Amino acid sequence: MPIRIPDSLPAHATLESENIFVMTEFRAMHQDIRPLDVLILNLMPTKVVTETQLLRKLSNTPLQVHVEFLQTASYIPTHTDPGHMEQFYYTFDEIKNRRYDGMIITGAPLDYVACEDVAYWDEICKIMEWTKTHVHCTFHLCWGAYAGLYYHYGIKKTDLAQKLFGIFPHKVLKRTSPLFRGFDDVFMAPHSRATDVNLADVEAVPELEVMAVTESGSLAIAKTTDSRQFFVTCHAEYDADTLAREYFRDMEKGLTTVDLPENYFPDNDPKNPPIVNWRSTGQLLYSNWLNFYVYQSTPYDLYSEDGEF
């Protein structure tokens, strides 16, 4: 939570220069509080696992967050109980007249598939266009990030010759950004993707700023300069065993050429349980996004004229 101090206290400027979140008395006295409405478009086949991972991160703040789940109508998931989808998920037509403080568009197992060849691409485009007027801040995750960069800015994704699979160090480029409050200068996070974008293509768009990159220089986090859209290619929300389950699943399928996830199993021995070194990254990333880019700037009344995005 922010610390509340008098407006004119000399420490105010010093604390802000040190990236400490300070709320003035004036703002505190005039601040109304209500639950945040967050929509999650869950494109992962393992719906329940992804729900749990994201909710765990979104719950790690004192903020009240009301979460709703969205599914595509143009593609029916086959890995989740239909009863679960009917009970907990909306379709776009059911929510298109609502407004949300924040939204997360998840990844999907669509490596090597062109965006236009995705079964529900037209629906995804409609939803992403809708976010411009009905969502205050959108968090595009993994494949969702590549889809967002392509739809909004025409940045094409590329295929990697070798899958980026494991836990990798990342370099923070915008150290004073509220997104990275509490982060180390180098942070660890999982990747599981055979997709990338040319970093120069992102840097060439005036409305975009690169926030963090992998040690090898691949895009990790970017956002728009107005902080309305975030594009995150790493999976800081992953559980300890997520990469292990993916690795063993592929091995069971007979994919003997599957590489071990890098920097994951101690001594590169799959019999050794992985040591989690990205948990704090995940907690901070989602908490900071929710606090500084959703809660602190979203309109109090989403449906009033003053609540126009």
Write the layout of secondary structure elements.
Blueprint: E1 3-5, H1 11-17, E2 22-24, H2 25-29, E3 36-41, H3 47-58, E4 65-70, H4 82-88, E5 89-90, H5 92-95, E6 100-105, H6 121-134, E7 135-141, H7 143-153, E8 157-172, E9 186-197, H8 199-203, E10 208-214, E11 219-224, E12 229-232, H9 242-252, H10 279-295
Parallel strand pairs: 1-2, 3-4, 3-6, 4-5, 6-7, 7-12
Antiparallel strand pairs: 8-9, 8-10, 10-11, 11-12
Span between termini: 25 Å
Helical stretch count? 10
Under the CATH scheme, the architecture of the largest domain is: 3-Layer(aba) Sandwich
Structural class: alpha/beta
Total individual domains:
2
List segments where confidence is low: pLDDT < 50 over at least 5 consecutive residues.
none
The strand line-up of the biggest sheet is 5-4-3-6-7-12-11-10-8-9
Q: Percent of residues in helical segments?
A: 25-40%
* Oligomer status: single chain
The main pleated sheet reads as: 10 strands, mixed
Short description:
With 309 residues, the chain is α/β, with parallel strands linked by helices. The protein has ten helices and twelve strands. The chain has helices spanning 11-17, 25-29, 47-58, 82-88, 92-95, 121-134, 143-153, 199-203, 242-252, 279-295, and strands at 3-5, 22-24, 36-41, 65-70, 89-90, 100-105, 135-141, 157-172, 186-197, 208-214, 219-224, 229-232.
